[in-house]
Every structure is written in C-alpha cells, then in structure tokens.
Amino acid sequence: MRVLVVEDEAALRDNLKERLTESGFTVDVARDGEEGLFAALEYPLDVAIIDLGLPNLPGLEVIRRVRAAAKSYPILILTARDNWQDKVEGLQAGADDYVAKPFHFEEVLARLQALLRRAGGWASPQLKCGPVVLDTRAQAVHVDGAALELTTFEYRILEHLMLRAGDVISKTELTERLYDQDFERDSNVIEVLVGRLRRKLDPEDKLRPIETLRGRGYRFALPRDTSS
Amino acid sequence: MHSLSRRLLVSVSVPLALFFGVMMLVLDTGFRALSEHSMQELLDSQMVGLIAAAEPQPNGGYAPAPHALDPRLATPRSGLYAQIRSQLHEWQSPSNAMADVDFGPLLAHGERNTTYTSFGHDRVAIESRAIQFEDDPQGLRTLTFSVAVSLSPYEEQLWRFRQELVGWFIGLMVVLLVTLAALMQWVLAPLRRMEREIHAVEEGRSDVLGAGYPRELSGVASNLNTLLVGERKRVARYRDTLGNLAHSLKTPLAVMRSSLPRQAPAGPMGAEIDRMTDIIEHQLKRAAASGGALIGQAPVDVAQVAASLRGALLRVYADKDLVLELVVPAACQFIGDRGDLTELLGNLLDNACKWCRDRVRLTASAEDGAGPRERLLLQIEDDGPGISEEDRVRVLQRGVRTDESVPGHGLGLAMVRDTVDLYGGRMSIDSSPLGGARFSLRLPGR
Predict the structure, then answer these.
(1) Which residues does residue A211 pair with via DSSP β-bridges, in sequence order?
(2) B272 with B319, same domain?
(3) B235 phi/psi in degrees, rounded to 5
(4) Whether residue A34 has pLDDT greater than 90
(5) Which residues of chain B neighbour A123 with C-beta distances below 8 Å?
(6) Does B400 touch chain A if contact means CB atoms closer than 8 Å?
(7) What is d(CA B11, CA B233) in angstroms, rounded to the nearest whole number?
(8) How far apart are CA B446 and CA B333, in angstroms?
(9) Alpha carbons B35 and B157: distance in angstroms, whole number
C-alpha cells in the first residue's frame, strides 16, 4: 500500500514515515502544500494523510484540487484545529476521515486501514474470500483456519490483491505500491513473489486463488465472503 | 415615569392646567366686579330717581308721583323694589306686592349702606339712605329711602359666563394636548427608529444602525455602531488567537508524543501529554465558545448546520450502514454562534453515530411557550445501548473535571454541557423510543 504523508512539522513527518514503513506501507512524504499537491496528483497512491495547516497551499485546497483532478483514493485529515466546523469543511472538500493532533500512531494506522478497506469495498477489517482470511489489523493470513507464514512483501501483495478482490491489478501497479520510487523496476521480482504466494496459499493447486491475465496483470479470483 | 412621552406630557400639562386655573380665577373675579359695579350703578340711579321724585303726601308721608315712577317699580315682582319710611309713615312701591319684602331697620340721619338679603327666595341687594328734607311740611325728620334689586339676573349671567369660560378652556386644553401629542410623535420619531434598529440588530436582521439621525442622536448612533463592529472584531480576534494557541500547542505535543519510545507502555510522559491535550482541548474550546448571541449576529439555520454535519458524519461512518435522520423544520433557528451550534450538534451526533447500531435521529422544534433561552428544542437519539442513570447524572453535573468525564463519551459531552450552560439553556438525557440514549437541549432560538 502506498501512502502519501503531507506534513510540515519535520519531526512528525519523519516519525509517521518511519512507523508507517514499519507497518508495511510504502511512504511518500511532502513538506508543504505545493509539494503535497504535486505528489498527490503524480504518484500512484492508495491513500493520503494531509495536514490541514500547511505552508504555501492550505491542506483544504490540496484536497479540493486532488478531488477536482478525479483522484478517488481515500484521504485522511490531520488537524490541530479540532472543531467541527473545520472537520465538516475538510470532509466536504473531499476528505474521508480525520484525526486530531496530537494523535496516537495506532489511531492513525487504524483509520488508514479502515479507509483502505472501505475503498476496496470491505466492511470489516477481516477480508474473507472463500477459505482465505486476511486480518488487516493483525496482518495475519489464515487458510481454512490454519495460520500462514508470509514474508512482508508476500503479505503486502496479498493484501493489495484481496482488498481489491475481483479487480485486475497490473504488475506495474503492484511494483509501484510496494517499493519506493527509486526501486529499479524488475517485474521478475513480482512474478517470483506471486509464485511463492500461490504455493503457500494453495500447496495442492486446488483453490487457484490468484489468476494471471497475460499482459494485464493479476486478479484475486476467490469470491468475497461478505456474510459477516 | 419610565416613558419620555409621559414625562413630556406631564411636564407640559401641569403648568398649562395651573395657568388656565389662574386665568379662570382672574377672569371670574373681574367679571363679578364688573357686574357688581353695574348693579351698584342701577341702585344709585334708582335711588337718585326715587329721592328726586319723592313728594310730601297729604297723610304726612312721602311718595313719588305715580307718573314719575319707574315702570319696573310699578310692576309686581319685577325684581326692582323701593320703600320710603319714616317713624310713622311708610310707602311701598307697587312691585313690592306679593313679595316677602323686608328692607331692614330704619337708619339714623346721614347713614347709607348696601346690604344683601333675601325676599322670600329672591336674593336681593338693598341700598338704603337716611335723608332729611329741609322743606318737609312735617318739620325736620329722617326718612329712610331703600331700593332693592334682584340678584338673579346677575347670578344667571355670571353662571353663563363661567360655563362659557370653562367650555372654552377645556376646548383649548384639548386642542393644545392633541397638538402636543402630535409634536411629541414627531420629536420622538428618531428615538423610536433607533429602538427599532437596535432590535433588528439584536435579532440579527441588520449589522449596524442606519445613518440620518438628528444631530443630538447621531453621536449615540455612531458610537453604538463603533461598539458593535469593535465587539465583533474583538471576539473574532479572540477566537482566532485561541485557535492559533491551540494549534501551536498541539503540534509540539504531537511531536513529543511521536518521539516517545515505542511499544513500551506510554509511561508518565505519555500520560502527561494526554492530560495536557485534554486541558487544551477542553479549556480552549470552552473559552472560544461565545455563550450567547453577539449583538448583530444573524440567527443560524439549524437545518443547514445539521445537513452539513450529516454529510460529514456519513462519510466518517461509511462503515456503518447508518440511517441518519434529520427532522428539522426549515424555520428553526438558533440565536447564537454558528460555531457553537456546529460544535454542540457535531459532538452529540458523532457520539450517537459511534454508539448506535444503525439509526440516529436529530429532531428540532420551536416551543413558543418556553422561556426566551429555551425556545429551541434539539433532540439527538440513537438505537445504541443508551446511558445508565448513574452516568447520566455524572454527564449533567456541573463542575465535573475533564478527567472525570464519562469513559467512552470523551470530552465531547463535558463540552456540550458547558456550552449549553453558557447559553443559559438546559440539557437532559433520557431513553429514546429508538432504544438508545436521547439528549435534549433547550437553547435560545425560535
């Protein structure tokens, strides 16, 4: 998952970047409104965290322009002005949720995950597709009730595919969202990771959870279980 | 004496009434003096005529010659009476017939007087003179000549005069007072206009007082305007400062929290940061709540605020399949600050959305019969687990410190309670027919 953090306070920005990276996100940062707007419009993002009080261009304006450019990924507002009038303005401008400063990182993380889930059309933090269950909070995967040992990258790929289960996701998109910009893009790595993931999920080759669509990408093929 | 017009009316009509009273007294006295004078003249001339016409009679008395007699003296009960008396003789004018006359005692030589008495029911003035004729055939003796005139024509005249006088004075008084009232309307019109405009400003229908006041009031009007604008600016600046203060305190707190060692429990540092955050949150917000309609602030449409909050909350609670129902008549208005209302409704609706299963309802209504600070009724209810009796009491208790706030309801409710208090409104909690808690706020509005 690729997240943009637009925050002018260096210590906060660095801290968020560090902890989000630890939590399995690919993090882009921007230090003011203009930089933030550029990143928000140009980078392939899954979600953005935008402080409202930004130099050069106010956060509210950044959000408006991002939405005007038809970008639909979720946006989380960070604000020190914790009153409803500001919250309402932010949400009306196109943000999806807010966290008041000073925040607990866990809170930011929980909101981010909830937003990503919602964007993928999931109602609960547990993503269930047939026998495969992925818990976004615990970052754990079970198949038929048995825990699965996954590497960080394997988990991230699976999370990405399952969040948007049913959609076709290209290798480029996966690469962009898993690695920093300066990563040398070698699609073989993705192929290798997906191959390993398939073997772990489906050692007997019965479920076939991940389809390959030649020249287009991958698709998580198991039907979503939305009963719970 | 709390009305300027009444003061003016009294201050003008009292001297006016006094003036008219004295005038009437003076005119009445004058008129009476005049009529007494003319009556005296009549008596005198009759007396002179009688004395001149008196001739000795064969019986030894004196009497006027019949041809020289004033016709009124010859007619019974004419209102004019005469008598000539000596010790032995007496002459009565024919007019004395059938009247119960009594001219009083005889006078000594040289005496003369005027007395008032009654002949029966007729009030009369009597002039009597004691005279001696030197050529009296009976020798020198004293004769008393008396002439009486009825007072009733004079009294009638005086009565008519008084009636007319009073009639005119009352008429004049009425005309003067009506003119005065009309003038007062005209003079006080700018004051009434000022009152109207201040009322309009209070109700938020206009910002400031208009121009074009007379010289004596234009100073007051412009001072009031300066005050209004100044007050509004001051409050705006005050809130801005508080907002900036909160902002500039919270960012370093966020930095401090982010630099705490991870994983390990937050420890005393973390707890202190939380406490400071709560204090900033609660106290600064409380200070920023205006707690009353600023003069000249437009009333806030409840429906508008509720609709924008609804949009925002539905976004935030997109996970829950929420039914957020607004039952807010378009005419419902809150008299106070938009920010305060947004904060009140935002906190309560957010709380309701947090605790509900899937239904939240906001109902607004105006109660015309309620006190001026409780006319707007806002009810927020949900279908969640509700709030226990104990917690209700704690939520509503005044002076509960922020760190004693009901767990799970955050600082929001303490904030709501304080703001409602500031507005002089009321807040109560009971159970909703939906199943959960129902918060009822009574606030200034319509």
Answers:
(1) A219
(2) no
(3) -65, -40
(4) yes
(5) 319
(6) no
(7) 44
(8) 5
(9) 9
